[in-house]
Design goal:
Layout (H helix, E strand, L loop, with lengths): L2 H10 L2 H4 L5 H12 L5 H14 L3 H14 L13 E5 L12 H10 L4 E5 L11 H7 L9 H11 L1 E5 H4 L1 H4 L2 H7 L5 H4 L10 E6 L3 H14 L4 E5 L14 E7 L5 E5 L17 H12 L5 H16 L6 H13 L2 H21 L1
Parallel strand pairs: 1-2, 1-4, 2-3, 4-5
Antiparallel strand pairs: 5-6, 6-7
Length: 357
């Protein structure tokens, strides 16, 4: 048993009257002790559920991020790109109700020259929804077989990278079973949405569900005091996917500036109010995504255009949302997104062939 960890556990687990928030350095120390298994399983589980009940502060999330930045993996900046890198913070436990659009968005952005980094793992408690890794596998891109060095090479050559926890951050993956054992998302699930496994300055785009989470995000990044550009999306199932059944609520936060609020209504741009549902099987979802890349009309195509247009506009590729819609349609209809998918497949195949020979 770690006596040092027990003291930190007592602070967060003592209840409303005597409990205390951790300082940034204490939160970092506690996170490191959990990642390195210096705390016992009983202590780790108790900390996670106590911290969830208490709710983390921005300062505590900053300390947790400190530990992840110290012990976790980082992709290095691309030498051949001047465009800011987009890091998407998407819940690790996946989707269970609506069709994920973000892999298509990533292909659209990288087709337009905007580098994208995603991160996550396998099926994960508590939702056990379809994770990003399975969607990419269905599209013929298996990030699970790549080392961090190989992922860096793919990121450098194609503009798309994926940090896969079980391979690239085994310490982080070691905390996943606790999510099932405590039956709730721990505060780590919040912190992961603003974790940036990238060594350069990035534009972090984080999905959220509950409004207080957005304030926690900002508090954490302001506490850490490094240059940042954060966009928050009240997206589908907490993801970065813009909804269509309601107005999309977006927060834009740059260092030393006030939060700017953006509201986008599907009606204003000629889209219906339908969010494509998650199909019964992964194969059906892959078929739907491939149909978008082929330019075939559908509801998921409409969501792909809606999201692609926003991100191209928001990342500075297009001057207006209307221009973003036109450029997204052009990228899809000219097979640019499909060609980007083939480019990534080919780069991975060539890399694996080179290692075999």
């Amino acid at each position: 048993m770690s006596k040092a960890f027990r003291e930190l556990l007592k602070k967060v687990g003592s209840g409303n009257h005597t409990g205390e928030n951790l300082t940034r350095s204490e939160a970092a120390a506690a996170t490191k002790m959990m990642l390195l298994a210096e705390a016992t399983p009983a202590q780790i589980g108790a900390f996670m559920i106590a911290h969830r009940i208490k709710r983390p502060t921005g300062e505590e999330l900053a300390g947790m991020l400190d530990a992840y930045y110290e012990l976790g993996p980082k992709l290095q900046p691309k030498k051949s790109s001047n465009s800011p890198v987009i890091v998407m913070g998407i819940p690790y436990d996946g989707r269970s109700r609506t069709a994920p659009i973000n892999p298509i968005t990533a292909l659209i952005l990288t087709s337009a020259g905007v580098p994208v980094i995603m991160h996550g793992g396998d099926r994960m408690p508590t939702k056990e929804g379809i994770p990003l890794i399975e969607i990419w596998q269905g599209l013929g891109i298996d990030w699970t077989k790549l080392s961090l060095t190989e992922t860096q090479q793919i990121f450098e050559s194609t503009g798309l990278g994926f940090i896969y926890l079980p391979n690239h951050f085994t310490l982080g993956a070691g905390l996943v079973p606790y999510r099932d054992q405590i039956g709730k998302r721990p505060p780590f699930a919040t912190m992961e949405l603003i974790w940036c496994p990238y060594a350069g300055d990035a534009h972090i785009i984080s999905g959220f569900v509950h409004p207080p989470t957005e304030n926690m995000f900002r508090g954490a990044l302001e506490t850490r005091g490094f240059p940042y550009y954060l966009t928050t999306i009240k997206g589908l199932e907490g993801s970065c996917d813009l909804p269509r059944e309601r107005t999309a609520i977006i927060g834009i936060i740059k260092q030393n500036t006030e939060l700017q609020r953006l509201h986008l209504s599907h009606n204003d741009y000629g889209f219906s109010n339908i969010n494509p549902p998650l199909p019964p099987t992964t194969n059906e979802l892959i078929t739907q995504i491939e149909s978008v890349l082929k330019g075939e009309p559908s509801e998921i195509m409409q969501s792909a255009i809606w999201n692609g247009a926003f991100y191209l506009w928001h990342c500075g590729i297009c001057p207006t949302m209307e221009a973003g819609i036109a450029v997204t349609k052009e990228i899809i209809n000219n097979n640019n997104a499909a060609q980007k998918l083939e480019e990534i497949r080919g780069a991975i195949a060539a890399l694996q062939l080179a290692y075999k020979t």
